[in-house]
Amino acid sequence: MGTIPQLHPINPSPLQNPPTTKKPRSHSTTFSILRVAETQLSTSLPPFHCLNGYHEPNSLNSVKIMHAQIAKMAKDKNSDAKMQSLITSYLIFGDFRSSAMVFFLGFAQNYLHWNSFVKEFTSFGGDPFEILEVFCQLHNRRVSFGSRVLTIVLKLCANVRVVWLGMEVHASLIKRGFDMDVYSKCALMNFYGCCWGIEYANQAFDEVPDQEGLLWNEAVLVNLRNEKWVEALQLFKEMQFSFVKANSVTLAKVVQACGKVEGLDLGKQIHGYIIRSALESNVWVCNSLIGMYSRNNSLELARAVFDSMEKRNLSSWNSIISSHTALGHLHDAQKLFSDMESCNMDPDIITWNSLMSGHLHRGLYREVLILLQRMQAAGLKPSSSSITSGLQAISELSYLSLGKELHCYVVRNGFSNDLYVGTSLLDMYVKNDSLTYAQAVFDSMMNRNIFAWNSLISGYSFAGQFEDAIQMLNRMERAGIKPDLVTYNGLVFGYSTWGRNKEALSMIHHMKVSGLTPNVVTWTSLISGCTQKGNFMDALDFSIQMQEDGINPNSVTISTLLRACASLSSLQKGKEIHCMAIRNGFMEEVNVNTALIDMYAKSGSLASAYEVFGKIQDKTLASWNCMIMGFSIYGQGKEAISLFNEMQEAGIRPDAITFTALLSGCKHSGLVNEGWKYFDSMKVDHNIIPTIEHYSCMVDLLGKCGYLDEAWDFIERMPMTPDANVWGALLGSCRIHGNLKLAEIAAKNLFKLEPHNPANYLLMMNLYAASGRWEDVDNIRDLMGVKMATLGRWSWIQINAKIHLFYSKGKAHPDEGEIYFELYQLISEMKSSGYIPDLKCVIQDIDYDEKEKLLLAHTEKLAITYGLLKTRSSSPIRVIQNTRVCSDCHTVAKYISMLRRREIFLKDGVRFHHFREGKCSCNDLW
Q1: Under a CB-based contact definition with an 8 Å cutoff, are residues 533 and 497 in contact?
Q2: Among 387, 737, 790, 867, whose Cα sits 20 to 30 Å from the Cα of 473?
C-alpha cells in the first residue's frame, strides 16, 4: 500500500454536513477518524454457544484468553466458526473495537459476511464509526487491504456520512488502480450520491468508458435513492437501448418510481419487460407492481398481479390491503384481511395501520377505534402511527374521556417525545375545546414544530381567546419560528367566525406586510368564518373581493359559498356559483355536488337538486343524506323513504343524520306508522342510538297527526331530558289542534329554556287569542316585555337579481300602493271562490274590519303579490319568510295558486310549502 502516514483525529462536525453545491476543497491525504463515545453494553444479551471444547467465557478477560488460544493454534476446518464465536463474544462483553479488529483480520475479504457483521455489531449497541476507526488504525499499522475491503469501507462511509474519509478511500482506490473496478465504482457512485449530491454520482458513472450492467443498475438506483424519479426512469430507458439487463432489485425500484410520478403507461411497459425477463414470480417485484398500480388508481390491475402470485410474503398482503384502503375499498380490504389470516399469515403493525388509516380517511372514526382495540387484543403494541390515527379519530368524535385514556397510554409507553404523537395529542385537545390540557401538552413537548404552534394558536383563535392567541404568536416569533400562512389563516378564520371581520381583514394586511401572500385558503377561511357566524352576505361580498385580488376559488370556497346561498335561499346567486364551479372544473368534486344539492333544495328548486344528485357517479353518504332531507323539507316523505331504500341497496350504511332526514320526511308527510318503524329500527337494525333530534322528530310527528296524548307519553318516557326542540314541537302541535292544557306545559318549559325567544310567546298568544282569552294574551305580552321588539317578521323575493324585502314594521316598499291595489282585487276574487279570512291569526282584541286589514299587511302576502306583478305568468314565485307561516296566509297562497295558475314556493322558518292548483305539499301539516 506504500507509505502510509499516521492518523490524526479531526473535528467531526464539518464531515457530517458538507456543502452539496460546491466542489470539495483540497484536503489531506491522511485517513481521518472520529472520536466516538463508548456505547454502553445492552442489558439484553442473546445466549452464547461455545464451540469445539472451548468453555463458555464468563468475562471479557476469558474472551481474550480464548482469543490467544485460537491465535496460537493452526488453522483447521472449524477456524471460521471459532472466529465467528470470538467476534460474538467480544460483542457480548462490549468490546466493539476488538470485535471489529478480529473481523477485519479474519473475514474482511468476504462480501457475504459484511452485512451480517454490521447488523450484529449495531444490534449489540456498537457504533459503525468504531468500525471505521479500527480500519484506520489497521491501515496505519501497514495492514494491506484489497479493493473489496476498501469498497465495503466506502459503503459504510456513505451510510454514516463520513465524507472526508470516504474521499480519502477514493484517493487510495485511484492510487492502487482499483477505481475502475466495477464494485468499487458502484460504491463510489453510492458514496457521492449520499454525501455530495446526485450530480457527482452521475459524473462518476459517466467517467467509466465501459459501462457494465452492474454500473447501469447502480446508476439507476442512486438516482432513485435521491428521489430523482424522472431522471432514474430516463436512465432506465437508456439502459434498455444499451441492451443492458436490469436486475430484480432495479426493476422493483423503477416500478415504484412509476407510482411516484403517476407513470401508468411506462409502468405497464416495464411490467411487460418483467414478464419477458421471467421475473413475474419474484415476490419483491410483484409487490412493487401492486403498489405502482394502486398509486395510479388501477386497483383491478394491482389485484390481478396479487392473484397471479404463487408465493406471497407479508409485504404482499400489506401492499394489496393498503392499496384497497388507500382507494377507499374498505369492504374488500377487510375481506383480504380475513383471507390473510386464513392463510396462516399473521398481520403485523403495518397491516393494522393501513386499515386504520383507510377508515380514518373515509370518515369512519368509530371503526378506527375498534380496529385499534382489535390490534391490541391480537397482542400487537400500537406504534406512533397507530396512536396518531386513534387520536385523530377521537378528535373527530369528540370523545374527550377516551382521548385522555390514550394520553395516559402514550405517557406509560414512552411516546411522549414523539413529535407526531405530541402534535396529534395537542390537536385532539384543541378540537375538544380543552385548551388548558392542550397548553399543558404543548409546554411538555421536548421538540415543537410549526404545526404544534399553529394548532394551539388556531385553538385559541377559534375559541375567541384572541389575547392568548396573539401572545402565543409573539412567543412563537421569540422562539425563532416564523409564522407561516397556516398561522395567519387560523387567526383570520377565528376573527371572522366571531364576527370580527375588521380584525380578520387587518390580519390579511399584516400577512402582506410580513412578506406573505394571502392565498385561496386565506380568503376561504374568511368566507367560511362569515358563513359559520351567519354573515352570509359578507361571505358573498368577500368572494367578489377575493376574485378582484386575482385569487381563483377552489372547491372548498365553492362549497362554502353554496352553503351561504342555501342559508339565504338565494337561488339566483346559487346558480351563479354553480356556473363558477363548472368553469373551474369542480363538478367532479363530491363536496361541491353535495353543497349544490343542499343549495337547490333549500332555495326552492327540488328538481334541480335531484338532477345534480343523479349525475354524481360516486355518491357519498353525505350526498344521499342531503337529497333525503331535500325531499323531507318539501313534504315528500314517500320519496324520501324510496331514496333511503335505494341507498341501502347501493350498500351505503345510514348514520344518525340519515334517520334525522328520514323522520323529518315522515313528520312533514304525516307518516306515523313509517316514522315508528324507522325510529325502532335505528337501534335494532343499525346499532344507532337515537339522539334528542330523533326524539324531537317523533314528538312533532305524533303531535301534528293529532296524537297529542301519545306525544306527551313519549316525552315522559324519553331516556334524556327534553330540550327546547322537543317542547317546541309539542307547542306547535298544540297550536294546530288547539290543546291549551298541553300547550301551557310546553310553554312553561320553553320560557325557562329559551327566555329570549319571542316565537314561543307569540305561539301562546295565538292560542289564547283563538280561544278569546284576551286577558291571558295581555299577560303573555307583559311577560314577554321588550322581547316583542326583537321579533321582526319579514319576507323577501328576488326579481331580476334584486332582492325585495317586506317588513312587518319599519320601512315600506316603494311599490306598496301598487301591491295593495292588486292584493285587494285578489282578496275580492278569493272571497267569491269561498275564502274566509282566519281572524284567529290576529292576536289583538280589535273589531272585525281592523283584524282583516292587519291580515292583509302580512309580509308573505305582500311578497307573493309583488311576484305576481313583476314576473312572467309562467314563472314560479319563490318567497322566503323568517317565521312560521300563519294559517290565513297559507290559505291565501293556495287560492292564489289556483286563481292565477301559478306555482308558489314559500319557505318559512320550518319547511317548504309548494302551492299548486289550490293545494299545498304539506297537506296542512306544518
Answers
A1: yes
A2: 387
